[in-house]
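User: Second chain of the day. Same drill as before.
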Amino acid sequence: QVQLVESGGGLVQAGDSLRLSCAASGRTFSGNAMGLGWFRQSPGKEREFVAGISWTGPASRTYYADSVKGRFTISRDNAKNTVYLQMNSLKPEDTAVYYCAARQVYGSPSDMTLYDYWGQGTQVTVSS
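Assistant: Same format as last time:
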């Protein structure tokens, strides 16, 4: 079992930055298939993929939704079992609850059905 705890959300103004953290505990990540992802959900909308990264291999192997590409950066610290999401140039449309998730199988990082473990979410609100 893996537990994921997000932190770092808050209320900011458009153009500001935030860094979200996702701390993992429980069963140690293992296996080359393990991946972490960030998803978000706004009121009245479906949950959507934001960014993904593999737990092993090149840390540069990252994936982003088109809507955040160039503004958000996902990274990992294997020693701390933590994944980060650096969010710059935030826009009001980035307002959502952000979730961290972990998967143990290969596949598209944006496929939510592949993720077995989810955090409780952290609220990000961007005012205009």
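The first strand starts at residue 2 and ends at 7.

User: Great, on to the next one.
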